Amino acid sequence: MFNLLIRRNNKLKVIVLNNQRKLSSLRETLENNENGDATVANQLVVDCNKSGLLNQHQNVLHNKCPYKEPNSWIHLTEKYQRKTYGRYGSSSGISPRICFSTKEDNISKSRYEKFAEPETVQSMISKYKFQQKCKTDEILKREEDINKKLEKLEQWKQELNSRIMKKEADALAAKEKRERLIEEVRRHFGYKVDPRDERFKEVLEQKEREDKKKQKEAKRKAKEQKLMSKLVEKSAAS
User: Fold this and answer.
1) What is the pLDDT of residues 33-73, one digit of tens each?
2) I want to staple 105 with a disulfide (CB 3.0 to 4.6 A). Which of 13, 53, 60, 101 is the partner?
């Protein structure tokens, strides 16, 4: 570890000595060139540039225009020149007219807008208002329909409850009827019979058929009675 520190110290001493020699040589050169030769000045700048950056990079670092003259076709494009002028201003050496559209640009832009947006602003506004009105009318219509249905809600509840009660009553009547028929079949045999027995099933079916006939007969008589009452009313009215 100690040897490593000694080596680094020696390297630093060598670098310092080299820099001192360069500075002394530059001083001698400047003293010999009283007129300020450009080559000597450039050499001085290069020797003082310890960062190793290129001139354009140094200019960017110091917030200066990187290139005094165009070095590529990109530097001649409108986009690059506008960007450079916007960042560095008049120091970039670019005319500010580049930032404004030309007559040809305006004509081309207007043609594109006519093709891309054929409708005028007024027509677009009218179309938007019409769409909004349609949406509003649809919402109002739906709300009105909901209100009407809410008004009938109680009626629908009552109808539903009545249908449920009717179904329950019909189911109870059917159950009581079947129990009554089963009891009649058992009385027919005079003793308890298993409902799964074939004889029991036959007698039960016979009883059900007889009961259906009785119901049909009762309905027919009720219908005839109703017709007779209507005829009597008509004859009395005449």
Assistant:
1) 555 555 555 555 555 666 677 888 888 888 888 888 888 89
2) 101
Number of separate helices (H) and strands (E) present in the chain = 8, 0
Sort residue 64 into left (φ over 0), alpha (ψ -120 to 50) or beta.
Answer: beta
Distance CA 65, CA 78 (A): 16
The residue type at 214: K
Distances (CA, A) of 59 to 21, 67, 162: 29, 8, 93
Alpha-carbon torsion (25, 27, 32, 38), positive or negative: positive
Question: For the segment 108-165, what is each residue's pLDDT rounded down to a tens digit?
Answer: 888 888 888 788 888 889 999 999 999 999 999 999 999 988 888 888 888 889 899 9
Q: CA-to-CA distance for 92 and 69, rounded, in angstroms?
A: 10
Whether the CB-CB separation of 193 and 200 falls below 8 Å is answered with yes
